[in-house]
Amino acid sequence: MLLADDFGQPNGLCFSLDERHLFVNDTERKHIRRFDVTADGGLADGRVWAETTGAGKGAPDGMKIDSAGNIYCCGPGGIHVFAPDAACLGVIRTPEAAANFCFGDDDLGSLYITASTSLYRVRVATPGTAQWQC
Question: Which residues form a coiled coil (predicted)?
């Protein structure tokens, strides 16, 4: 079943905590789109939800959600963090382009980030969710 065919380069994806919305980032266009998930598992009302802008190397790639519903997405300069209303809460800066990440440790309070040549660990204030535990 084809759900959408108008991306430049779809990459990372994650569901909202209630699984009523699917977020998909587009590496080429440097934005995150949000779709409503229909009762039959289809998608509707796809629209640009947020943009990953700023200085530094990197583009949308890996993407996850934390236990408060905040969306984390690779982008220019590191990991961009967006509130559930799409407000940018900030960027977790990395010294090289971030490619992907996951929440880890027993409390899911660490973010493990893979970059061009390195692996980083950063403690975060809001823990991740169990489906993203590494």
Answer: none
